[in-house]
Amino acid sequence: MSAATDTRPEAATDLTRASSGPRRSSSKGAVKRAPWVLLAPFLALFALTFVIPIVIAVFSSFTKVTRSGLFGEGGVTSGFAGFDNYAQVIGDPNFVASIGRMFLFGIVQVPVMLILCTVLALLLESASAKWPGVFRAAYFLPYGVPGVIATILWSFLYVPGLSPIIDIGEVFGVTPDFLGANTVLWSIANIVTWSYTGYNMLIIIAQLKSIPVELYEAAKVDGASALRVAFSIQLPLIRPALLLTAVFSIIGTLQLFAEAQVLQRVSPAIDSQYTPNLSAYTTAFAYNDYNVAAAQSVLIALVAFALSITFLSITNRKQK
Fold first, then answer.
1. What is the model's pLDDT at position 110?
2. By CB count within 10 A, which of 22, 40, 88, 160 is most buried?
3. How far apart are CA 304 and CA 158, in angstroms?
4. pLDDT at position 13, please?
5. Helices of type H across the chain
6. Helices 239-254 and 184-209, packing angle to 10 deg
7. What is the pLDDT of residue 259?
């Protein structure tokens, strides 16, 4: 029998492998490319809206624009400024004061909000809670109100002559000043707490729902009270959610902007550099110094990162 007419099984197998080889390699290549093809729109949008702006901001923070002539008619040149912009920002006492102000804000507001959202989550997940879905939606509703609208709504309760709270206080001989130099920071803290407590509560509720039912049944058999269950089972197991909400709150504290900007119209105590973000916004769009504003933004991000890492390291050390 000649090789051309060979019908042995081995020859047929070789021919099948030879014909299916390129097909298999091409299908494997398509499988490997498929995730990247699906992720390409997200990666492009992520780079366009997140990575590239950060790179530009960092680059701008090391650049200085120089204008020649009395009114800049001699031309505009940009060059490497080194750390001059950062030195100018750190040497600005108003910007440093805004960082300290937000640090004080976070020390008081963040623990209060975490306690409130934890208590609400535990109450709504208790066995005796009635209509938990209704109350969950009601507590989450303030988060759906934009920060500007929420501040405008609360300003009606802060401004004398409009606030029913002030009117009721005057009847009893008390005149609260919600917009004074010593109180406006805590008025802003009240707005932030009202807006974000429900949001953080949902994160904690999601963690509570992941607790195995067997633990509750064992605690019930042992005769544990509701408080004992909360402190011995629920609170230790929702620690990851508490850490997550705490880190989010720390970062959000340094990003405080809308509340201070809106209340600035009705409170003389709030200046253009009351918060770090408001200071960067003023530097960029009021003084047209975008390079210094970029340095301020980078420093805000670094401070938020440092505070978050410090908080996580302290909590992890206590756990160990």
1. 94
2. 88
3. 30
4. 52
5. 9-46, 52-61, 84-90, 93-124, 132-140, 147-158, 164-171, 184-209, 213-221, 226-229, 235-237, 239-254, 258-263, 276-285, 290-319
6. 150
7. 92
**Cβ 123 vs Cβ 129: under 8 Å:** yes
Residue type, 120: L
Q: What's the rounded Cα separation, in Å, for the pair 62 and 294?
A: 9
**Burial of 159 by CB count in 10 Å (0-12 exposed, 13-18 middle, 19+ buried)?**
middle
Backbone angles phi, psi at 59, to 5 degrees: -65, -40
- At CA 177, angle to CA 176 and CA 179, rounded to 5? 150
DSSP 10: H
Distance, C-alpha 273 to centroid of its chain: 21
User: How crowded is residue 158: how many other Cβ atoms within 10 Å of its Cβ?
Assistant: 24
What are the pLDDT digits (tens) for 128-180?
Answer: 678 888 888 899 999 989 989 999 999 999 998 889 999 999 888 888 899 99
- Count, residues in the chain: 320
Which tokens in the block code for residue 307? 């505070």
In terms of Cα–Cα distance, which of 49, 78, 96 is closest to 276? 96
Q: Is residue 130 within 8 Å of residue 213, measured between CB atoms?
A: no
pLDDT in tens, 9-43: 555 455 455 555 556 666 777 778 888 888 899 99
Hey, what's the torsion of the CAs at 138, 144, 150, 154, to 10 degrees? 0
Instruction: Tell me the average pLDDT of the chain.
Output: 86
